[in-house]
Design brief:
Length: 168
């Protein structure tokens, strides 16, 4: 299993006013608010690179180039229980570290599945890898059913953040 430190960098903007703390002390982060901070950083970097304010176009550039990876990385943080994101179901928080997953899915299969999904792959990509590697499909299908990436796809679509940016 990948370590938290190898995937999950500290949030450079720190806690935001939109983040809240559950009764058990877990901080729940806003995917949209943190994406907007990342977009502002991107605008600043691009403006520095070109020695002038690049304006709102940098937001669309960030969405086109970075949103999908940003959202997927946050989804994996959520699934591993490293950081809780309000855009994803609370019931999925820490899903990949539960003993039921360890019981049904070999660690190497779990790691490869997380890697494929983290790189933007879909269920079919995981299944194709498993078939090519000669892996037993039963635990993989069980895991994919629990992750249910297809149901979360809407949260990962660029339209979600693009609509929000247009409103601000």
């Amino acid at each position: 299993m990948p370590s938290r430190d190898s995937i999950c960098a500290e949030i450079s903007e720190g806690p935001l006013i939109t983040d809240r703390v559950r009764e058990d002390g877990v901080v729940i982060h806003s995917l949209t608010a943190h994406a907007l901070c990342a977009m502002d950083r991107h605008k600043w970097i691009e403006s520095q690179k070109y020695s002038h304010d690049v304006g709102e176009a940098s937001y669309n550039d960030w969405i086109d180039h970075y949103w999908r990876g940003f959202a997927r990385a946050r989804f994996l943080e959520h699934l591993y229980g490293w950081r809780c994101w309000s855009a994803f179901p609370d019931s999925d928080f820490g899903l990949l570290t539960r003993s039921t997953v360890d019981h049904f899915v070999p660690p190497a299969v779990l790691e490869q599945t997380a890697l494929i999904l983290g790189q933007g792959g879909e269920n079919l990509d995981v299944i194709n890898w498993a078939l090519a590697a000669g892996e037993n499909l039963d635990p993989i299908l069980w895991l994919l059913d629990r992750i249910d990436i297809n149901a979360k796809r809407q949260r990962l679509l660029a339209d979600h953040i693009r609509i929000f940016v247009e409103r601000t």
